[in-house]
Amino acid sequence: MKTVDDIMKSALLYGACSKSAEVSDWKSLSWLFFTPQGREFCEENSFPTLEMFRGMSGEIENYGVHVDAGAVRLSNDDNVALIGNTEGELIFSDNTRVHKVILMHGAKAKVTASNYTVILLVNIGSCEVEVIKDETVVIL
């Protein structure tokens, strides 16, 4: 398993931003992944690799990052990342915040949304996404 320091050293080699210095544990690493800068960095660099994600999967699942998790069903989570061999059934109806969904390395998602929900959907690579929504939903 990789350590947080190992992941951050690799990220810095790719030119990660100054916020990377604030990462001290798995929670802060996961938080950074969902920030605008983190999403942009990961998208531009296809980073972390699937192997890196697999090495940290047991540490980051509690923070919304699901790696090779098979079928998962989640409802109204703030932050969701589906990575690798993960198929998510994601249901959103909470309109009090923006829900962030990131797909990488071949993950699949079926997103069902209603009730003026706003979802930021980031598809890094060629992941499969099906969206079922009513006319009130906004997908960014």
Overview of the molecule:
With 140 residues, the chain is α/β, with parallel strands linked by helices. The protein is built from four helices and nine strands, in the order H-H-H-H-E-E-E-E-E-E-E-E-E. The chain has helices at residues 4-13, 26-33, 36-45, 50-60; strands spanning 65-67, 70-75, 79-83, 86-92, 98-104, 108-113, 118-124, 128-133, 138-139. The strands form two sheets. A five-stranded parallel β-sheet has the order 1-3-5-7-9. Strands 2-4-6-8 form a four-stranded parallel β-sheet, with no helix packed on it. The radius of gyration is 15 Å and the shape is globular. The mean pLDDT is 89.
Strand order of the largest sheet: 1-3-5-7-9
- Content-based structural category: alpha/beta
Mean pLDDT: 89
Percentage of residues in DSSP E strands: 35-45%
Order of secondary-structure elements: HHHHEEEEEEEEE
- Global outline: globular
Let me know the number of strands. Answer: 9
Percent range of helical residues: 25-40%
Keywords:
single chain; 140 residues; alpha/beta; 5-stranded parallel β-sheet; 35% strand; globular
Short précis:
With 140 residues, this protein is α/β, with parallel strands linked by helices. The chain has helices at residues 4-13, 26-33, 36-45, 50-60; strands at 65-67, 70-75, 79-83, 86-92, 98-104, 108-113, 118-124, 128-133, 138-139.
Blueprint of the fold:
Blueprint: H1 4-13, H2 26-33, H3 36-45, H4 50-60, E1 65-67, E2 70-75, E3 79-83, E4 86-92, E5 98-104, E6 108-113, E7 118-124, E8 128-133, E9 138-139
Parallel strand pairs: 1-3, 2-4, 3-5, 4-6, 5-7, 6-8, 7-9
